[in-house]
Amino acid sequence: MSDADALDGERIAAAVRAGGGGRRFLLRDEVGSTQDLAFAMADEGAPDGSVVLADGQTAGRGRLGRRWESPPGAGLWFSRVVRPGVPPPPAPLLVAATAVALAAVLERETGVVAALRWPNDVLMGGLKVAGMLIETRDFDPGSPVLVLGVGVNVSQAEGGLAEDLRGTATSLRGAGGRTPDRTGLLCGVLRSLDDGFADLARPGGAERLDAAYVRRAAFVGEAVQLLDGDAPREGVLLEASPVRGVLLRGAVDRGDIRVRPEHARALRPSGPRRGRGLVDRRPPVG
Ligand code: BTN
Predict the structure, then answer these.
(1) Is the distance from CB of 240 to CB of 118 less than 8 angstroms?
(2) What integer is the mean pLDDT of 259-273?
């Protein structure tokens, strides 16, 4: 663990427990994946909002079967038990609630604009700084349980990223704004997730969330490739919405194609990029 930015377990435990309901918190120096420990915790009955945090992971996993580099001391690697109630909100809304909550805190803490690459990557300057993964296993339909894993690259230098990530990913430090301490950042993210999930459950929550996601969507107006089946679709991105799905203007026939949120798996820019990739339509922060 880096002495300069050691995780303060007591402060984080207090922040987790402040959510009430007997929430549990587990901090480990090194684990395979926090996802597995969080599933074990959920199996033992851990309530919604319980958290497993590790300083480093040796087998961190990402979406679409990818690995997730989680070097010790360099980021936030945690999993949160989610008990969404019956019926659970559609998965794309849970993903979007997480993405919006995370992006808002990262932007506030660094002063750098955070955009969302469909469905759940947080980008700064066009490069990925954070990702999330929602997994589920067999559960009693009367008591659904999910595990939400979040990874935030905080302090890696360019050379500290795995070779295949250079040019596509960075860390908060690499993004050039303030580099927050991991403890304060995590406490802010956990609070923001609680608020985001609670708001989603209120009347009008899906509409508010959708608007917040659409405002942060990266690459709107740019040429992209969308993965929703075997062959990627090419087009100009018109909208990325967790309620309506991804809308593309087709590259070949100029016809519009809407792909439902649960079928649109990943999106990446495909054409020449403007600047470092983000069309920021919002006022600056900070
Ligand atoms: C992605 O962008 O592909 C998702 C990355 C999710 C990484 C986090 S780190 C904490 C948790 N444990 C894991 O093994 N994965 C998630």
Answers:
(1) yes
(2) 87
Which of 103, 98, 90 minimizes the C-alpha distance to 196?
A: 98
Report which ligand 1 atom has the smallest distance to the Cα of 64.
Answer: 3
> How many angstroms separate the alpha carbon of residue 203 from the centre of ligand 1?
30
Asked whether the predicted pLDDT for residue 142 surpasses 90, the reply is no
Residue 229 Cα to ligand 1 midpoint, Å, equals: 23
Distance (Å) from CA 253 to ligand 1 centroid: 37
pTM score: 0.91
Encode pLDDT of 27-53 as tens digits: 999 999 999 999 999 999 999 999 999
The string of pLDDT tens digits covering residues 1-26 is 445 799 999 999 999 999 999 999 99
Query: Cα of 158 to ligand 1 centre, how many Å?
Result: 20
Is 66 close to ligand 1, i.e. is its CB under 6 Å away?
Answer: yes
Provide the pLDDT for residue 231: 83
**Ligand 1: nearest atom to the Cα of 78:** 10
Give CA 69 to chain center in angstroms.
15
Q: Which of 28, 66, 77, 227 to mutate to test the pocket of ligand 1 (most atoms within 8 A of CB)?
A: 77
CA atoms 188, 193, 194, 200: torsion sign: positive
